[in-house]
Amino acid sequence: MKLPLITKRTRPFYPRDHKCPICSKYVGEPDSFLCFSGGAMKQIEPNFYSMDDDLFGFLDINFHGAHDFGKGKYRDAFLMKHIVEHSACGQFEIYFCSTSCFRKFMNMMIDDLEEELSGGKKKNKSDVISSKNKKQ
Ligand SMILES: [Zn+2]
Description:
- It is built from one helix and eight strands, in the order E-E-E-E-E-E-E-H-E.
- Residues about 130-135 have low confidence and may be disordered.
- By secondary structure, it is an alpha+beta fold.
- The chain has one domain.
- Bound molecules: zinc ion (ZN).
């Protein structure tokens, strides 16, 4: 699965072919499905909000390693996985056929993050990583 799933060059939803990103089964109406959504709304009036072309949404997983006297694994590492980058109107939706596939997706994201942090996988172009202790 290539990240980010949604960018300013795509529509603000994924998948665009109605196939679950995990199992490829059909996902959409009238069947049941899970929608992982997020974003921002522009405040127009005190109790009125609207989508806006000036907003760009994002969804990242960031790992911030310990530094100085801090404790924790992957010392001095910083890794950012961009799942959604500059989504149109500041909003996005990612569809899954089931809670089980959504859980698998989240586990895949964390497994991928841990693999990169441990040096077992080369970083993707969309990832940002820095580490003082990374093997050369
Ligand atoms: Zn599925």
